Amino acid sequence: MSKLSLHPVIAGLLLAGAALTLTACESKDSAQADAVAEVAPTVTEVVAEAADVVMDTTGLAAVLAAQPEAVQARYDDRRPAQTLAFFGIEPGMKVLEALPGGGWYTKILVPYLGTEGSLVGVDYDPALFPLFGFMSDEQLKAKDSWVDTWLTDARSWFDTPVASIDAFQFGALPARLEGQLDAALFVRALHNMARFEQEGGFLTASLMDTKAALKPGGIVGVVQHMAPEDAADDWADGSAGYLKKSFVIDAFEAAGFELLGDSDLNVNPLDQPTSDDIVWRLPPTLSGSADNPELAARMSAIGESSRMTLLFKKPE
Length: 316
Known about the structure:
The protein is an alpha/beta fold. It folds into 2 domains: 1-66; 70-313, Vaccinia Virus protein VP39 (Rossmann fold), CATH 3.40.50. The chain is 42% helix and 17% strand. The chain contains 14 helices and 8 strands. Strands 1, 2, 3, 4, 5, 6, 7 and 8 form an 8-stranded mixed beta sheet that branches. α1 (8-26) packs antiparallel against α2 (30-39). The protein is globular. The two termini are 38 Å apart. Residues 1-57 have low confidence and may be disordered.
């Protein structure tokens, strides 16, 4: 990142502004050119907007630059700087992170939120895991102590002052967290709850817990593997990892959230899944191609899944 001569946010905004300006200048229809010029940002406006973004994300840029190379290798696919900026995540906020796992996003968020902020990791309801059908009794038993185990691990990841860290499991929201959080993030975390919704109401319950934990006006950012809207519902139910954008929006609105924004920044047009595909065929998992280098190369060339990026709000 330090090798970039121009901050990527500035570069993107300048290119967008230049493209609109060129469209207006090159048009042979003067009326069309005038119409485009009305909505095209001036270079001054673009630079001013970029400067504001850079001021807000300078700390995040430093955190991202400090991550291991293996993490940084995923930035082109996962766009953490742009995603967190779109969601409005800032230092000092109190943020819920659903399904934090090994901490890919946790290790970015905790130092970025800073000592005035806090991160609350939330795992699935333990009752969901037996439904997978592949977890051992020992693995299932470990979920009983997940909160303490994950907190111990997460706190060991940092050796400088950072945001405070807390945790709970969906279905067991602690009273101390009710109405306390500024934001919640569901990054590739919804599909399994949606898949088993009929068995235990897991998606509905998790959204209720999230809404209860948020302050009035608190936001929810969603990044989720995105199924084509014309896909069969029984394939796009989460079992293949994919959900339809319309399904996710409907679920959040049914839970009482308001849709604030919808971004294409994590869309990957190369990912065109069919009913024979699962999302884990793609990087970083590459399921099904471990012994087939040619297939693995094809999947790697596609990149990570195409993802919806949605922003919701708890009503004031």
